[in-house]
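Field reference: sequence -> structure
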Amino acid sequence: MKLKSYTAIALLTLLLTNCSQPANAPTPETQTPPATQTQTTPAVSSKSGKIELKLEGGKAAFSLKPESDGAKLVDENDRELARLTVDSREKVKIKDSGDRAIGYVVTEADSWKIKDASQNQELYVLQRQTDGDYKLKSGGNQEIYRIKKRDYGFEIETPTKQSLYKIKSKDGQISLRNPSDKTVLYVKSGLTPIAIACFGFDVLTREQKAALAYAVNDSGVQ
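Structure field:
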């Protein structure tokens, strides 16, 4: 009789415990564990740190120094050569060391347009092609350079297929090389290969090259 009493008490306790819990209360086995937070590494861009472009042998050529509203182009002695300011539409304004506007780079879908200081004249257009190549044309739609996608990076050619420069990614750096395969300019980080290609567009001024490279790089294209 004593065993039956203990059994009845245990059953009553279990019944009262189950009744006191909400019908949909999760058990330890069914509770959803907190979501695991994943961290992503931000892409390197021309806004994340000073970008040093160097000549063969490691001598500094010039640098892009990030600013709150864009970047400065400075020489090897840190002297300001030009200032690039970016508005909310990613339009890059090019100003000389005297703070005077000397041009603009306007980013559009798969193209970048270099305009004069008045923004009335379209000087050059870099156009991305559907196959991954690029073309640089004049404002009058005349083809100036073809930028061909290669296994090693890019090759800049004339419309008649004369090789002018190659952009190669090797040994932790991206280099602009002449037809003799000698390094003209290189960078270790901060710019994509197609952004480095902009420094091989010899029809552009130094300031236009830097502004175009900045705009192309921040567009995230490869």
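Note: The chain has one domain: 51-219.
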